[in-house]
Write a structure and sequence with these properties.
With 154 residues, this protein is of the alpha/beta class. The protein has a single domain, classed as Glutaredoxin (3-Layer(aba) Sandwich), CATH 3.40.30.10. It has 6 helices and 7 strands, in the order ββαβαβαβααββα. The protein has a 5-stranded mixed sheet with strand order 5-4-3-6-7. Strands 1-2 form a two-stranded antiparallel sheet. Strand 3, helix 2 and strand 4 form a beta-alpha-beta unit. Helix 2 runs parallel beside helix 6. The longest helix has 19 residues. The protein is globular and about 35 Å long.
Amino acid sequence: MTLAIGTTAPDFEVTSSDGRPLKLADFRGKKNIVMYFYPQDFTGVCTRETCGFRDMYEDLKSHDTEVIGVSFDDDTSHEKFRQEYNVSFPLVADTNKDLAKKYEATSFVRNLIGKASRVTYVIDKSGKIAGVFKAELSAATHTGGVRDLLAKLS
């Protein structure tokens, strides 16, 4: 299955590192979702990307949008990362890679090195993929793309 713009986003039911339950069904009809997969907490591009979403978070929330960060790091790492960088949106520890597989954020090589691919999905209120951003070394491609796309969806 290829997750292209206009396709239905795969259902998910996960728990964030701070204990919040997150289900796609709970957002449907209510909020857009920015779900971004990133390789690792505390690394350069990942930190810039997360802080970029952190800095836009209040604006995104005011436009009925939730941000969810996902990596293969465990809950302990995510909580340290959240605290150090004052991240208020949920981070998900996808240690079994189930969510990454559903959202095509993994590959043979990525599995070998134990890191998710850097890919961001914007899921609209109807549960459809409204945008996909891929750029391994550019946090700005993700944050800027999300900002521009959500301005059009509002």
